Amino acid sequence: MEGYITLSEREMEYLFRIIDSSTTIFLRHQFFLWAQGEVQSLLPHGLLICMFDEGSGQPISIDRFSRTNISEVTLSELCRPDGGVVFRVMSAWNAGKNRPVLLCPHNASSIAYRQFANDLKREDLERMAAHGMFDANGRTRSLFTFTQIPIALTERHAYFLELLMPHMHMALVRMLFHERHQHGSVVGKTRKLITDRQTEILRHVQMGKSNDEIAQLLNISPLTVKNHIQKILHKLDVSNRAHAVAKAMSLKLTL
Questions:
Q1: How remote is the C-alpha of 105 from its chain's centroid?
Q2: CATH number of 9-183
């Protein structure tokens, strides 16, 4: 960041509220309300995608928190490990020495924006801001990608990201730890729980196919497809198809 940034009295109040409320987050709905509530005061956004890498050969955890409608196929494209914009942003973040990444038409001449301009326009994402946390070896531990941002991004927002990251990282870790402590890790059980047929159906859901289309492709009834999807949601401990797709991708079930 260039120059010295001083927070206004109101911004300091916003920051204190964000930090204070972050310490009370243990559940997924609490993280959602926090991200779509207090955090909005410093960085308004419609969609937040959180990536967490435990290392040790574990798959990357991908979670999204959104107050806007986003199709399953759009979400799966954004989070595709082999070229999805979120993974490419993470590469750009690493290449930029782990500094905040700001992608905004306001800075359309920047090299970073030109690399992602087509993605942002195609997916109707408008603007994107990303930052994360890394360990002493420079390995990415978490990355938070904000998009559907309604305002022009400036170095002030990069500074906000620097201030917010430790608290966002710990809130996410606390949420994930609580879920695994209470319900057990899905990672170790998923492959046994999901049948080959359900994995096949998940791949079609990831491609944006409807129940009727999947039924025709697999020569089964739409009701059978619906029943399989309900079982998948239950087994992956998610509430809808979009979350199932994101979780399946993070667990490498549909690659």
A1: 22
A2: 3.30.450.80
**133: phi > 0 → left, psi -120 to 50 → alpha, else beta; which?**
beta
Q: What is the pLDDT of residues 74-99, one digit of tens each?
A: 777 888 877 888 999 999 998 888 89
Total number of residues shown for the chain? 255
For the chain, the farthest-separated pair of C-alpha atoms sits apart, in whole angstroms, at 63
Give 27-53 pLDDT, tens digit per residue: 888 999 999 899 999 999 999 999 998
What would the CATH number be for the domain defined by 190-250?
1.10.10.10
Q: Of 110, 119, 34, 136, whose CA–CA distance to 77 is shortest?
A: 119
Beta strand spans in 121-255 (E) = 128-134, 140-147
**Contact of 211 with 226, CB cutoff 8 Å:** yes
Q: How far is the C-alpha of 35 from the C-alpha of 77, rounded, in Å?
A: 23
Query: Distances in Å between the alpha carbon of 156 and those of 12, 40, 152, 153?
Result: 13, 15, 11, 8
Of 101, 150, 93, the closest CA to residue 1 belongs to: 101
